[in-house]
Fold this sequence. Notes:
The structure holds two protein chains of two kinds.
Chain A: H1 5-33, H2 49-54, H3 58-91, H4 95-105, H5 112-134, H6 146-174, H7 178-186, H8 191-202, H9 204-219, H10 223-228, H11 240-249, H12 254-283
Chain B: H1 3-31, H2 35-40, H3 52-60, H4 63-94, H5 98-110, H6 119-128, H7 134-158, H8 162-170, H9 175-186, H10 188-204, H11 207-212, H12 221-231, H13 236-256, H14 258-270
Helix pairs in contact in B: 1-13, 3-13, 4-7, 4-10, 5-7, 7-10, 8-9, 10-14, 12-13
Transmembrane segments (chain A): 12-35, 64-89, 109-130, 150-173, 194-216, 256-278
Domain ABC transmembrane type-1 (chain A): 64-275
Organism (chain A): Liquorilactobacillus hordei DSM 19519
Amino acid sequence: xxxxxxxxxxxxxxxxxxxxxxxxxxxxxxxxxxxxxxxxxxxxxxxxxxxxxxxxxxxxxxxxxxxxxxxxxxxxxxxxxxxxxxxxxxxxxxxxxxxxxxxxxxxxxxxxxxxxxxxxxxxxxxxxxxxxxxxxxxxxxxxxxxxxxxxxxxxxxxxxxxxxxxxxxxxxxxxxxxxxxxxxxxxxxxxxxxxxxxxxxxxxxxxxxxxxxxxxxxxxxxxxxxxxxxxxxxxxxxxxxxxxxxxxxxxxxxxxxxxxxxxxxxxxxxxxxxxxxxxxxxxx
Amino acid sequence: xxxxxxxxxxxxxxxxxxxxxxxxxxxxxxxxxxxxxxxxxxxxxxxxxxxxxxxxxxxxxxxxxxxxxxxxxxxxxxxxxxxxxxxxxxxxxxxxxxxxxxxxxxxxxxxxxxxxxxxxxxxxxxxxxxxxxxxxxxxxxxxxxxxxxxxxxxxxxxxxxxxxxxxxxxxxxxxxxxxxxxxxxxxxxxxxxxxxxxxxxxxxxxxxxxxxxxxxxxxxxxxxxxxxxxxxxxxxxxxxxxxxxxxxxxxxxxxxxxxxxxxxxxxxxxx
Lengths: 284, 271
């Protein structure tokens, strides 16, 4: 053994310290919190009451289902757009496709708060101008209506994430051996046949990765939600992260909010284990 | 493929790209106008043209100070994260045993926990000892990022042959020296990935800083942008100029390091 015990500890202890202090300890305290009526100052143990009340709380249930609906819709759209972009930029290798790659990826660089404000301007001012110029009511008042407000967040998120997911598909597309495709072309395969019979099967692992990456990210979405609609009108576009934040730091029901946080954790964990099981199954 | 279809496809792709890029364009165009110009036509340039919004926004955002706060917090966090996680990952990759496996699974496990599920106890923990400032933000950023970084580094160190360690040991080098001078430099592409991934995340973060450093003199760019937006009272030309200023640093950095950024982002999600 090259590394002695005390040296080993010197290498790993700083990391262990940070993980315990910032994640493990707060997580354990959090589990306790979720069984209390803590308001940040005082707290007493109340058993399962928070969870019982949560499942009757229409604001919570609404934000929960909104998050599920949002995740479902955005996962599908982001993956479709991301895959389409990946196919576009890998179709040729020239200056145009190179700059397309950059442009498609760029929204991903910008933080959620800035993105939310950019799209707030588009949905209010720009859409209003389009509505007035072409007499289209479709473009009117997008953020003052619960259903179009929801789609507004979806559009923003698709704009932000598609370029990111594109990169994952590109790396898997590039891993397909060139001579496989050349052989298919020599055998007279059409572009659509090459896509469905050669490229698509090779992309299976990319689908799993991208699907769950987008799913996890949409479950945790907060900043975009805050800057675009701030949950409005009337908390109708408030997703679960914002619900937790508002309950804890605006209404000071910290124990209650933490119970919602535990539910969020359980959802993300279940989703991750399904992903793990799926990719294990394919490999094994 | 025929030349005409090729040109047609190129044209189609160009339109899609323009459409995708338009949100950036519309922000820049309207940041260069007065209030009246935006009202007349927010979709394109009008005769109302001015640079003055940038000056107002720069002062209102206290941009020099918020920029440096963002920079100091990001750089400090990234340095600590990189050193701490590289050291731990090195030991994990060289010493196999129950403690190493436990630690590896601890990293994988803690990655599952969403920040929203720990933010309330985390904040009350640090609030109780009255330790909410830039230093504690760096500590929190580190705790939240080491797990993924260790797993990334672990993969890279596995790829470095142990004969290198053995040769260095024969030459009389201590493990610490071997790590600093031989093994760590050998994984510099992965170091680049870890630095870029964490820097992007921390630079753009809003939720955690809003809970920890939301006070005068400590504001980061996203924090200041959020409060400035509330103050502009639908004077979009000012808000948009502020947005342009806030986006400029990261876009410039991206254009300089384009290839590296895109490889890092891909690697960070696939591994």
